[in-house]
Design a protein that fits this description.
There is one protein chain. The chain is mainly beta. The protein is built from 1 helix and 5 strands; from the N terminus they run H-E-E-E-E-E. The chain has a 5-stranded antiparallel beta sheet, with no helix packed on it. The longest helix has 9 residues.
Length: 113
Protein backbone atom coordinates (compact mmCIF):
# COMPACT_ATOMS: atom_id res chain seq x y z
CA UNK A 1 0.00 0.00 0.00
CA UNK A 2 1.45 3.36 -0.91
CA UNK A 3 1.61 6.47 1.25
CA UNK A 4 -1.52 8.17 -0.17
CA UNK A 5 -3.74 5.14 0.47
CA UNK A 6 -2.41 4.84 4.01
CA UNK A 7 -3.23 8.47 4.77
CA UNK A 8 -6.70 8.09 3.22
CA UNK A 9 -7.48 5.07 5.41
CA UNK A 10 -6.38 7.01 8.48
CA UNK A 11 -8.92 9.82 7.92
CA UNK A 12 -11.91 7.75 6.76
CA UNK A 13 -14.83 7.25 9.17
CA UNK A 14 -15.41 3.56 9.91
CA UNK A 15 -18.79 3.91 11.70
CA UNK A 16 -20.91 5.16 8.77
CA UNK A 17 -24.28 3.45 8.22
CA UNK A 18 -25.21 1.85 4.93
CA UNK A 19 -26.80 4.57 2.81
CA UNK A 20 -27.94 4.45 -0.79
CA UNK A 21 -29.57 6.80 -3.26
CA UNK A 22 -33.24 7.25 -2.36
CA UNK A 23 -32.75 6.85 1.38
CA UNK A 24 -33.88 9.57 3.76
CA UNK A 25 -31.00 10.53 6.03
CA UNK A 26 -30.38 12.92 8.89
CA UNK A 27 -26.93 14.52 8.61
CA UNK A 28 -25.69 16.32 11.72
CA UNK A 29 -23.11 19.01 10.95
CA UNK A 30 -20.90 20.96 13.35
CA UNK A 31 -21.46 24.68 12.67
CA UNK A 32 -19.06 27.29 13.99
CA UNK A 33 -20.43 30.79 14.55
CA UNK A 34 -17.83 33.14 15.89
CA UNK A 35 -16.38 31.52 19.01
CA UNK A 36 -19.32 29.16 19.58
CA UNK A 37 -20.03 25.75 18.07
CA UNK A 38 -23.32 23.94 17.69
CA UNK A 39 -24.69 20.91 15.89
CA UNK A 40 -27.30 21.34 13.17
CA UNK A 41 -29.31 18.54 11.55
CA UNK A 42 -30.26 18.44 7.86
CA UNK A 43 -32.80 15.76 6.94
CA UNK A 44 -33.62 14.90 3.34
CA UNK A 45 -33.43 12.40 0.50
CA UNK A 46 -30.12 11.35 -1.03
CA UNK A 47 -30.38 12.14 -4.72
CA UNK A 48 -26.75 11.43 -5.69
CA UNK A 49 -23.60 9.72 -4.47
CA UNK A 50 -20.31 10.61 -6.11
CA UNK A 51 -16.69 9.54 -6.01
CA UNK A 52 -15.45 6.99 -3.51
CA UNK A 53 -13.10 6.51 -0.63
CA UNK A 54 -12.03 9.66 1.18
CA UNK A 55 -13.57 11.87 -1.56
CA UNK A 56 -17.08 10.41 -1.30
CA UNK A 57 -19.91 12.96 -1.30
CA UNK A 58 -23.68 12.72 -1.00
CA UNK A 59 -26.19 15.25 -2.30
CA UNK A 60 -29.17 15.59 0.06
CA UNK A 61 -32.37 17.34 -1.01
CA UNK A 62 -35.26 18.51 1.12
CA UNK A 63 -38.25 20.79 0.69
CA UNK A 64 -38.65 23.49 3.33
CA UNK A 65 -41.41 26.07 3.09
CA UNK A 66 -42.16 24.85 -0.47
CA UNK A 67 -38.64 25.66 -1.64
CA UNK A 68 -36.21 22.91 -2.60
CA UNK A 69 -32.86 22.99 -0.85
CA UNK A 70 -29.87 20.80 -1.74
CA UNK A 71 -26.61 20.40 0.12
CA UNK A 72 -23.54 18.43 -0.84
CA UNK A 73 -21.85 16.76 2.12
CA UNK A 74 -18.35 15.24 2.05
CA UNK A 75 -19.07 12.05 3.99
CA UNK A 76 -15.68 11.71 5.68
CA UNK A 77 -15.35 15.39 6.61
CA UNK A 78 -14.48 16.14 10.26
CA UNK A 79 -17.34 18.68 10.37
CA UNK A 80 -19.89 15.86 9.89
CA UNK A 81 -20.85 14.65 13.36
CA UNK A 82 -23.16 11.80 12.36
CA UNK A 83 -25.23 10.37 9.52
CA UNK A 84 -28.26 8.25 10.36
CA UNK A 85 -30.64 6.55 7.97
CA UNK A 86 -34.27 7.46 8.74
CA UNK A 87 -35.95 5.35 6.04
CA UNK A 88 -34.90 3.22 3.09
CA UNK A 89 -35.96 4.19 -0.41
CA UNK A 90 -36.93 1.93 -3.28
CA UNK A 91 -35.41 3.37 -6.47
CA UNK A 92 -34.19 1.96 -9.76
CA UNK A 93 -31.61 4.52 -10.80
CA UNK A 94 -28.32 5.92 -9.55
CA UNK A 95 -29.16 9.63 -9.69
CA UNK A 96 -32.54 11.08 -8.74
CA UNK A 97 -32.18 14.46 -10.41
CA UNK A 98 -35.73 14.15 -11.75
CA UNK A 99 -37.01 14.91 -8.22
CA UNK A 100 -35.98 18.54 -8.78
CA UNK A 101 -38.92 18.97 -11.17
CA UNK A 102 -41.45 17.25 -8.92
CA UNK A 103 -43.66 18.96 -6.33
CA UNK A 104 -45.72 17.59 -3.45
CA UNK A 105 -46.52 13.88 -3.31
CA UNK A 106 -44.86 13.32 -6.69
CA UNK A 107 -41.52 14.16 -5.10
CA UNK A 108 -41.77 11.22 -2.68
CA UNK A 109 -39.74 8.03 -2.95
CA UNK A 110 -41.43 4.71 -2.11
CA UNK A 111 -40.21 2.96 1.02
CA UNK A 112 -38.29 -0.31 0.77
CA UNK A 113 -39.60 -2.87 3.21
Amino acid sequence: MNLVETLNQQYMKPELPEMNVGDTVRVTVRVKEGSRERNQAFEGTIIAKKHGGINETITVRRISYSVGCEKIFPVHSPSIVSVETVRRGKVRRAKLYYLRDRVGKNAKVKERI
